[in-house]
User: What shape does this take?
Amino acid sequence: MPVITPWMPRPTSGGVIEMFRLARKRFGDEIELLHDMHERVEPMSKRWYDFIRIHISQIGGITPAMKVARLGEWFNVRTAWHGPGDTSPVGHAANAHIDLAVWNFGIQECKLFSDLTYEVFPGTPYVKDGYLFVNEAPGLGVDINEELAARYPVKPYNYNWTQVRKADGTPVRP
Assistant: This one.
């Protein structure tokens, strides 16, 4: 049976701060640095964070994301919603619509979808010349071609990498 090392937020945060200090010493201030903690540290009011990077569906959807973004405004923290390749077209549309609605939009990670995805999900956001465009149809603007979608069943996906726990056994979201 494998040995499971518990997640320790405080030592991790300290290690990141030291890592950034060393990177600044070596590379200077001309480059921007980013470290993704995957939501595994508690919010701190010391202004150590520049971006809020959250997977919208993991915090309950658009309404909670809007509340988090508004809180971030008070600390000059910008949004950077999580948009990996396993986020659906609807999820990417939700990210983009929130980006358009908040004052503290920062940057948006997104997937470049295949032509087939645009056929199955008409209205999926698309990237052109470095900009993300959303459909202006009602709602999030994404529809589904159910007949075409039925030809492509969902493949099983292993979510075990998300099962991280603190030393006391509390689950930690990725």
